[in-house]
Amino acid sequence: MDYVKLGSTGLEVSRLCLGCMSYGDPDRGGHPWTLPEADSAPFLHRALDAGVTFYDTANVYSNGSSEEIVGNVLLKAVPRDQVVIATKVHGRMRPGPNGGGLSRQAILSEVDNSLRRLGTDYIDLYQIHRFDPSVPLEETLQALDDVVTAGKVRYLGASSMWAWQFAKALHLQDAHGWRRFVTMQDHYNLLYREEEREMLPLCADEGIGVIPWSPLARGKLTRDWDESTNRSEKDEFGKSLYRDSDADIAAAVARVAERRGVPRAQVALAWVARNPVVTAPIVGATKPHHLDDAVAAVDLVLTDDEVAELEAPYEPHEVRGF
């Protein structure tokens, strides 16, 4: 496993981040495809054995049970300072006022709830899961700065939003002397490249580490286009992200993978990882070979001709994912 700095910070992370949305109580949070702790633990241990040190979850994943599993498994296996744990705030955790969003009240409550579920006294990377237009941005940013000052959080990150919103946030943080966002977790893969227009150039200019979600397009780049999985049949959000014309790109991935003699996942992930602004793609794993393919992809170098073949079928998409 290779290790790199997280954006322009001094924090070192593995070249891959294990996404933990698939680990959680399937009876909590409306994600019936998730794996309970007994089934999740082998994947977390396998990732540790592979040298993965970077793990991403969120308070809203399976109504908090993903955080519980991540903390319980990882922190029983290794010392706290040997892993980088990222989680997020924004999603609704309970009905009624202040049960979600990015108000000061919500952030200060939810950071403590995440710490309790994770079983730790600090979060390495605390991310806003989405932009909240209903709250003054200054209120959100000052609250985030305060949780860093309190020692509950070490670094701040953001997730999918318009580039102008992210630029405004960075400007306000600089103007007020508040801690800056150091990462952007956005939607980026061969089927969805709209982030190349504004967000990725902004991140490159500002020294922001990019940790893309869904680099394998919900698995659609790893299998035949019409093949379904338990998750793809039940993931309503995922169904909204891609369109049938994207099948030509998936076919290009299949051709390159066949010529190389490697699984399609390695080709699709290697394409994302080759972008110099990308720090660590976030990969999910619910089968043993998922992690094997992800680790192997780090060392797979695509030729210019292969990249051209993979990129040629792409057509502009409507902005999706936030």
Describe what you observe in this structure.
By secondary structure, the chain is α/β, with parallel strands linked by helices. The protein has a single domain (3-311), classed as TIM Barrel, CATH 3.20.20.100. The protein has twelve helices and ten strands. The strands form two sheets. An eight-stranded parallel sheet has the order 9-8-7-6-5-4-3-10. Strands 1-2 form a two-stranded antiparallel ribbon. β6, α4 and β7 (153-159) form a beta-alpha-beta unit. α1 (37-49) packs across α2 (65-77). The longest helix is centred in the middle third of the chain and has 15 residues, at 104-118. The mean pLDDT is 94.
Evaluate the radius of gyration. 19 Å
Count of β-strands? 10
Summing up helix and strand content along with how strands pair, one would put the structural category as: alpha/beta
Q: How many helices?
A: 12
Please report which band the strand proportion falls in: under 5%, 5-15%, 15-25%, 25-35%, 35-45% or over 45%.
Answer: 5-15%
CATH class: Alpha Beta
- The CATH architecture classification is Alpha-Beta Barrel
For the biggest β-sheet, the strand order reads 9-8-7-6-5-4-3-10
Q: Provide the domain count.
A: 1
- The overall pLDDT, averaged over residues, is 94
Query: Order of helices and strands, N to C?
Result: EEEHEHEHEHEHEHEHHHHEHH
Helix coverage percent of residues?
Answer: 25-40%
Alpha-carbon distance between the termini?
31 Å
The fold-level CATH name is TIM Barrel
- Overall morphology: globular
Low-confidence parts, pLDDT < 50 over ≥5 residues?
none
Strand count, sense and barrel status of the largest sheet are: 8 strands, parallel
Question: CATH superfamily name?
Answer: NADP-dependent oxidoreductase domain
